[in-house]
Task: inverse folding
């Protein structure tokens, strides 16, 4: 099983400085550059597409390639382990975090879950699902100028808690919500 | 081959509301095929959205996000006619970028 991704990642304590989304032992991964940017440049050179679009796309591709992926956190098999690996073991429960999700869902493979944070300085939101084979679903960075809100669809394999973790001012806060399933999400 | 991301970006007041639907199997690595062999995990790991070169959304994703993942977020500073770029890379190193113009709500 290759859940760790196309390459291996190793802990590098020297690289834990503040640029990471949630604290983690990951290091920046440099991925093999695909041929896409070169093709775009060629199309621009022969006038097929706008060079400004090429620039925007190649910059975006470089950014997405160079970003990190926290393999250790995504491997965690429980809420507690996930929180601990994210450095959020001491997270405080907060009523300023709202989780919008169905109380009862008929289907587990695609449950819409939205999180909004009323905590000033929110710069990251993570979603964890307590009864899934791996707890962490997504780690979302909230840059300045972006609302402390995200809405996405998750697999939920069994009835249980959905936990939203928020980082603000270097501290962690969370809220929890129970989602009951009538059909599981992992048999899809 | 990868397939285009469906993107809708609409200016509402001073916020641009962005909805995206990626086309990706998001294999969990836990399912067995017809021959009883485990289907390897294959999922989007990173998703970023940029506007005028600035990152306005960035997510690390695991395999417990649904097939054909959908995301919604909102950012300030976008104007109608400007473009956003949605890029993703998966655990096999495949990647793609798609663009959309911000529409007036």
Result:
């Amino acid at each position: 099983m290759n859940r760790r991704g196309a390459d291996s990642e190793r802990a590098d304590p020297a690289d834990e400085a503040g640029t990471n989304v949630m604290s983690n032992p990951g290091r920046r991964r440099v991925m093999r550059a695909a041929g896409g940017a070169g093709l775009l440049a060629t199309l621009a050179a022969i006038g097929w597409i706008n060079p400004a679009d090429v620039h925007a796309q190649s910059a975006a591709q470089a950014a997405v390639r160079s970003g990190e992926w926290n393999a250790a956190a995504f491997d965690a098999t429980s809420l507690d382990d996930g929180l601990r690996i994210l450095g959020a073991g001491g997270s405080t429960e907060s009523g300023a975090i709202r989780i919008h999700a169905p109380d009862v869902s008929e289907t587990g493979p695609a449950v819409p879950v939205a999180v909004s944070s009323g905590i000033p300085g929110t710069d990251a939101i993570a979603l964890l699902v307590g009864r899934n084979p791996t707890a962490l679903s997504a780690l979302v960075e909230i840059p300045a100028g972006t609302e402390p809100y995200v809405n996405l669809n998750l697999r939920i394999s069994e009835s249980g808690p959905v936990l939203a973790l928020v980082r603000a001012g270097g501290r962690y806060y969370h809220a929890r919500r129970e989602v009951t399933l009538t059909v599981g999400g992992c048999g899809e | 081959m990868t397939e285009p991301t469906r993107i809708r970006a609409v200016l509402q007041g001073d916020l641009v509301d962005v909805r995206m639907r990626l086309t990706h199997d998001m294999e969990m690595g836990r399912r067995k095929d017809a021959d009883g062999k485990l289907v390897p995990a294959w999922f989007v790991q990173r998703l970023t959205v940029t506007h005028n070169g600035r990152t306005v959304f960035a997510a690390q994703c695991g395999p417990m996000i649904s097939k054909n993942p959908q995301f919604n977020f909102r950012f300030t500073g976008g104007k109608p006619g400007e473009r956003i770029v949605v890029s993703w890379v998966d655990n096999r190193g495949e990647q793609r970028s798609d663009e959309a113009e911000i529409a007036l709500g």
